[in-house]
């Protein structure tokens, strides 16, 4: 038996109808606007539905959010909903209208699913979907009327965490880097590879390898290199001083 629940009607019918109307002027179909099932046939329930819902619309007329929608709905429905009542109470007219509404709802559903599929394809193009992406998709499309199960059923790639990017910095501060450059210049070395007497091929290999293992370098390991450079510099200085004294 049809019953009117104002809170449920506001949440499930009226607010979505206001959003759609504000977006593109769309009105709910003659069954949806009265929260009547497509297979309704009881004339008393139809009359009750039209009367209660049109009265509810009038109460919302002073609400700025719904004012224009209410005006258009009341005009479409006719005085006291007489135009819609005539359609819904006539078995032939109701059947014809039901067929039209079913086709419209089918097209609308297909368009909505196409939009959802496009969104899923966008985030799944890399071959997987992250938990955060999945959560955001569900949150977005549940608001548009989909169930979580409908959304998840269309996701056909595995779910896993995204790839973590390796650090791109050198791992040492500017002061230490400058000290290393100064020490290398003192020793007349172009770079660490020349200081360590590594050839170009080996240097290129190390550069490629460093992309994979760079994250594992620690400040302590770089400190060892720095100490070695400092010792070499000190040896050069001492040798120079000894030569001058001699």
Number of domains: 2
Helix and strand content put the structural class at: mainly alpha
N/C terminus separation: 115 Å
> What proportion of the residues is helical, as a percent range?
55-70%
Number of helical segments with 4 or more residues: 11
| Largest sheet descriptor | none
- Rg from Cα: 37 Å
Shape: rod-shaped
Unreliable spans: none
Number of strands: 0
Mean pLDDT: 81
Describe the structure.
There is one protein chain. With 246 residues, this protein is an all-alpha fold. The chain has two domains: 6-153, no CATH class; 174-245, no CATH class. 67% of the residues lie in helices and 0% in strands. The chain has eleven helices and no strands. It is rod-shaped and about 120 Å long. It starts with 5 loop residues before the first helix and ends with a helix.
Short summary:
The protein has 246 residues and is mainly alpha-helical. 67% of the residues lie in helices and 0% in strands. The mean pLDDT is 81.
Give the SSE layout:
Blueprint: H1 6-24, H2 43-59, H3 67-77, H4 82-89, H5 91-124, H6 131-142, H7 148-153, H8 174-186, H9 192-195, H10 200-213, H11 219-245
Can you give keywords for this protein?
mainly alpha, 67% helix, 246 residues
